[in-house]
């Protein structure tokens, strides 16, 4: 019998929990207790599947927080508190624990949140589970709010982390400065928290892209019940050059990667200039990659015609 992948496992739990759980496929969960609303997100980092060779303990700590911060960012919600649960293998020295703790402290300061508790346990490898909490008493865009005519935008380019993993894990080559930039995309990802907090008022729909651009676009298209027409691939020349030198398709690096903590969002055309001006003030390089129309699927329109962009990216337990 074939083992289920991450997506199938999540759907199984959703079905078992039933409607009363209000379990929705969103970047964050909103809980209402009496008159107050709270935003909650949990994410897990496992050393063997989420930590590439060469990543320092402080960077590992930061990455475990980044995963949750990026989910808050795409909804325009400020994370306030976090709890951290650790499984630590035997052999961890006090110096290693200090490096991990310092990484959490510095990252919490960077993102303006408070770590208020957690748990520790012993495990065969390092595992970090982060739960983050914020104020949910404001309107929040969903993944499924895109309307016909909306413009599809990403908060940055794609392909850097995919190329970086090719270099770190598979030994592919790139020019020194290019390789450094690709590695930084893996070791020090930059969630768009400040931009998300200010630009969210213009989002008709939004989603974090860390599972891969193709997965993100398809999820938004399906939940919005609209066709997403992609007319421009959001990447930079260094990714295209890297792909050409290593005889690979640059579109695979862009659409089928992961670990890129950008915001993918849609805006009404009337708000486009406002978003552009805000991004310019904040030094955020937006990529206007297409538009929303009636229909279904995600399609790429280029010189070769029209192609459907299928789901590809990072899914745990997929064979």
From TrEMBL:
Mg(2+) 2 binds at residues 43, 71. SUPFAM superfamilies: PurM C-terminal domain-like, PurM N-terminal domain-like. Gene3D superfamilies: PurM-like C-terminal domain, PurM-like, N-terminal domain. Residues 26-134 form the PurM-like N-terminal domain. It catalyses: thiamine phosphate + ATP = thiamine diphosphate + ADP. The keyword Magnesium applies. Signal peptide: none annotated. The keyword Nucleotide-binding applies. ATP binds at residues 118-119, 143, 210. Pathway: Cofactor biosynthesis; thiamine diphosphate biosynthesis; thiamine diphosphate from thiamine phosphate: step 1/1. Mg(2+) 5 binds at residue 211. Mg(2+) 1 binds at residues 42-43, 119. Its EC number is 2.7.4.16. It comes from the Archaea. Substrate binds at residues 50, 259, 314. It is an enzyme of class 2 (transferase). Reaction mechanism of ThiL seems to utilize a direct, inline transfer of the gamma-phosphate of ATP to TMP rather than a phosphorylated enzyme intermediate. This is Thiamine-monophosphate kinase. It comes from Candidatus Nitrosotalea okcheonensis.
């Amino acid at each position: 019998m074939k083992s289920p992948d991450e997506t199938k496992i999540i759907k199984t739990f959703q079905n078992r929990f039933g409607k009363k759980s209000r379990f929705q496929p969103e970047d964050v969960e909103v809980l209402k207790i009496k008159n107050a609303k709270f935003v909650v997100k949990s994410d897990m980092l496992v050393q063997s599947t989420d930590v590439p060779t060469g990543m320092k303990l402080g960077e590992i700590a930061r990455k475990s927080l980044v995963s949750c911060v990026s989910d808050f960012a795409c909804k325009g919600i400020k994370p306030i508190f976090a709890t951290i649960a650790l499984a630590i293998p035997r052999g961890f020295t006090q110096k290693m624990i200090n490096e991990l703790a310092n990484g959490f402290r510095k990252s919490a300061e960077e993102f303006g949140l408070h770590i208020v508790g957690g748990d520790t346990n012993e495990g065969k490898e390092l595992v970090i589970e982060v739960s983050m909490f914020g104020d949910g008493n404001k309107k929040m865009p969903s993944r499924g709010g895109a309307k016909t005519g909306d413009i599809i935008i990403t908060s940055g380019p794609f392909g850097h982390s995919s190329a970086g993993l090719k270099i770190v894990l598979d030994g592919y080559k790139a020019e020194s400065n290019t390789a450094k930039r690709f590695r930084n995309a893996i070791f020090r990802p930059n969630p768009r928290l400040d931009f998300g907090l200010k630009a969210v008022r213009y989002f008709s729909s939004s989603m974090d892209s860390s599972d891969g651009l193709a997965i993100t676009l398809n999820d938004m298209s399906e939940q919005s019940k609209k066709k997403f027409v992609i007319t421009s691939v959001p990447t930079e020349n260094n990714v295209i050059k890297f792909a050409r030198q290593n005889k690979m398709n640059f579109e695979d690096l862009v659409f089928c990667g992961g670990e890129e903590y950008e915001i993918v969002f849609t805006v009404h055309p009337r708000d486009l200039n406002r978003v552009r001006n805000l991004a310019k003030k904040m030094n955020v390089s937006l990529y206007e990659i297409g538009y929303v129309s009636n229909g279904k699927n995600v399609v790429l329109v280029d010189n070769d015609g029209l192609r459907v962009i299928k789901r590809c990216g990072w899914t745990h337990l997929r064979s």
